[in-house]
Amino acid sequence: MHYPYQIKSLEDYRNIYERSVQDPELFWSDIADHFTWRKKWNRVLQWEFHTPKVEWFIGGKLNITENCIDRHLIHHADAPAIIWEPNDPNEKFRKISYRELHREVCMVAAVLRKLGVKKGDRVCIYMGMIPELTIAALACARIGAIHSIVFGGFSAESISDRIQDAHAEFVICCDGAYRGSKIIDLKAIVDDALTSCSFVKKVLVYQRTKTEVTMHTGRDVWWHEIRNETDSVTALQIPAEEMDSEDPLFILYTSGSTGKPKGVVHTCAGYMVYTHYSFVNVFQYTIDDVHFCTADIGWITGHSYIIYGPLSAGATSLMFEGIPTWPDAGRFWSIVDKHQVNILYTAPTAIRSLMTFGLVPFQNKNLSSLKVLGSVGEPINEEAWHWYHEHAGKNKCPIVDTWWQTETGGILISNLAGVTPEKPTFATLPLPGIQALLMDEDGHVITENNKIGYLCMKFPWPGIMRTTYGNHELCRRTYFEKFTDLYFTGDGAFRDENGFYRITGRVDDVLKISGHRIGTAEVENVINMHPDIVESAVVGYHHEIKGQAIYAFVVNNGHKRIENELRNEINHNLSEHIGPIVKADKIQFVSGLPKTRSGKIMRRILRKIAEGELENLGDTTTLLDPAIVEEIIKGRQ
Ligand code: PRX
Predict the structure, then answer these.
(1) Ligand 1 centre from 373 Cα, in Å?
(2) Which of 504, 512, 548 to mutate to test the pocket of ligand 1 (most atoms within 8 A of CB)?
(3) What topology does CATH give the domain 10-491?
(4) Global confidence as pTM
(5) What percent of the chain is modeled with pLDDT above 70?
(6) How far is CA 442 from CA 266, 489, 603, in A?
(7) What pLDDT digit, counting tens, does each position of 133-150 carry?
(8) Which CATH superfamily is domain 514-634 in?
(9) Residue 356 CB: number of other CB atoms within 10 A?
(10) What is the pLDDT of residues 102-142, one digit of tens each?
(11) Is 353 in the pocket of ligand 1 (CB under 6 A)?
């Protein structure tokens, strides 16, 4: 089965795109008509970017879980909604039908109500990649609570920052999570985080690893115990909460140029319509396909293309608990073979890491079910593109290079699988409704081909973020100030003679390390906490597998220290304060940093030194101490 709004040819795309920009309100309301509403909207859109204020489907009432679950029960109840592949291939996988998903979500929604969670409350979720994570998120949405999912690779301090910022009085976690050969003690990390969050009322704990945990009387509740005490007949009868189109659905924290991550807020209706529309069009999903997105649900890709996009389309979404290289580097290919996966959506960093294992992991794996491959999270280099195309796709599967961000909710620029042309390393064309443009430093629109500029959007789409939680001014300053009346993405890009976009990477102080988004200021703050360190400057440099890695220039306080010891302490602190996903690959001790006379660190110079581009460092005469550059070059790692 196809979806009535699925684009079927390049010509079709061009016509639909034209229509979508000529009358965006009509275009999006035609799409939104295909969903289940308790009450239809009375106005499609109200917006102004300078405030910013964006509202879609104003006055509409709905519950996103009725669109992701209940409406599929009529004809599709026994179809698998989720296929779950555990970390250990010897453990039995799970298949959860839409009927079972409905029952579980209603049960957990009833549990949350019993624990005192109400509409509008924030619930922090810190779990491994198990179906109960999806169930927990949907249960929140069912009762109108706002979920804030925190990726399992973040530390106790990162969790407590997020809990405090959102003032989340409820937490859902697991005892532990499996990750390759390791067990991560999630509950112990949560306990640690909560020492500074005494306002948290309840912690619901799902038992996954049977790791020993401390349960705090009065606060901590076992998921299985309270679930078993819940009456399923009553739970299934409780109606889903009626939500306004613009009620918040979730908060997801993401890094920017400022020190602390921001809570990006997405709302119910617009996000639903956009993730759904982009899912069925970019991947050309047809019913009964198995869609395997390898991202973690702790990131936006998991929110949009494991949970909400696929489930709103009645799709089968495959969730994987483990890592691509354990027990061996053929894990993805075994999963594709075992579950007859049709769509595989992963990150360039995973592809590059698998490339280092050669072709042996493909042996005896039948990948003939694959129809579409996808890439997300960072620019894909040509070599990785071709390897993916040849060895995973056997030269017959289109690759969609999907460009988007936490803030955009869904994919904005991408080819549509097999429908619009692909071009290695190019995200290609904007989706219908997406009015992209490139700006130069002086605020002029770039019309020439092949000229790099700042990637911006001039009109809202339903999935755009609405605010940053608790700080609307920060949202305005970060995204809507640099260019008047435009949304600024923070990325650089150029367009070729076909109008295809190629993303060149971040133009701000945000790094993409193995696809993970990390702000250099966050890293510097932690490095500077060390008593032997005066200041530091962090930049990214090209890394064969991770895409980018961290290079830290560090000024210590003159105490004689063994450098490697200090390096280990810095990395230990990064792991403790941000999470084990952050590590400085190179740490160079310097006696000072290149600064302008006004005290601003010249990161441009440090970036070039880190990349080894030593010939053309630009003008260094305006520096306070030009000699420092020579010293840094000499000690380069
Ligand atoms: O720099 C772009 C890069 O990832 C950034 C957004 O990161 P995040 O919010 O974590 O979301 C990642 C998953 C959507 C962007 O500003 N990026 C994402 N996709 C691509 C990309 N860069 C190049 N090509 C892509 N396909």
Answers:
(1) 17
(2) 512
(3) Rossmann fold (3.40.50)
(4) 0.97
(5) 100
(6) 31, 16, 21
(7) 999 999 999 999 999 999
(8) ANL, C-terminal domain (3.30.300.30)
(9) 10
(10) 999 999 999 999 999 999 999 999 999 999 999 999 999 99
(11) no
